[in-house]
Write a structure and sequence with these properties.
The protein contains 7 helices and no strands. The longest helix has about 35 residues. The termini are far apart. This is Urate hydroxylase PuuD.
Length: about 190
């Protein structure tokens, strides 16, 4: 049993199979929860939550754990984080952001809320606010945080002064995203 849980891919596949079994099991209530016959909505809603947890979970990991802990990490151990852990976490972080936005837009379309971004319909305004906050956050991930992290981590060439400036810029925008995530989550979880 322990060997199985040592294999992340096996665990993910088993989780996916279990989720599919729950969805297709006649008495699970899944069909009732997403609306009779709207399996696409259920699928994209599930994917939206999965990718959103990945994105925001890593945002909180960076801000609650990695950034505050790095000053106390001995100098000889810091490359373990900056060369191995952070680049991998940033990969899932930025793609989590991209797929959260993509699946969120699909869910909005399937709900008929694609015009919520206009913020002119009071019944959809809250989800529209959440969508705008998520779009701003995703923009920050791809066009501010990631380019600066590439310099800060040495993924692209930069002198020490540029690395330090880039690390600070990435941190500030990561903190902006942490701030925006709180009202974004309020809007996203209270729409319906």
């Amino acid at each position: 049993m322990g060997k199985f849980f040592e294999n992340l891919n096996g665990v993910l596949i088993a989780g996916l199979v279990l989720a599919i079994l729950i969805a297709v099991f006649p008495d699970s209530g899944y069909g009732n929860s997403v609306g009779a016959g709207n399996l696409w909505l259920g699928l994209f809603q599930w994917l939206h939550v999965f990718f959103g947890i990945t994105w925001i979970g890593l945002l909180y990991y960076f801000n609650f754990v990695q950034i505050p802990t790095m000053p106390s990490v001995p100098a000889e151990l810091k490359p373990g984080v900056s060369k191995y852990i952070a680049p991998k976490a940033l990969f899932y972080f930025r793609w989590g952001a991209a797929f959260t936005v993509l699946t969120g837009l699909i869910v909005a379309y399937l709900y008929g809320e694609e015009k919520a971004l206009l913020l002119n319909d009071p019944s959809n305004r809250l989800i529209g606010i959440g969508m705008w906050l998520a779009l701003i956050m995703a923009f920050n991930v791809w066009f501010v945080i990631w380019p600066n992290q590439k310099r800060a981590l040495g993924i692209v060439e930069a002198d020490d002064a540029s690395k330090a400036k880039s690390a600070r810029t990435a941190m500030i925008f990561s903190r902006i995203n942490t701030l925006l995530s709180i009202p974004m989550l309020l809007a996203m979880t209270n729409q319906h």
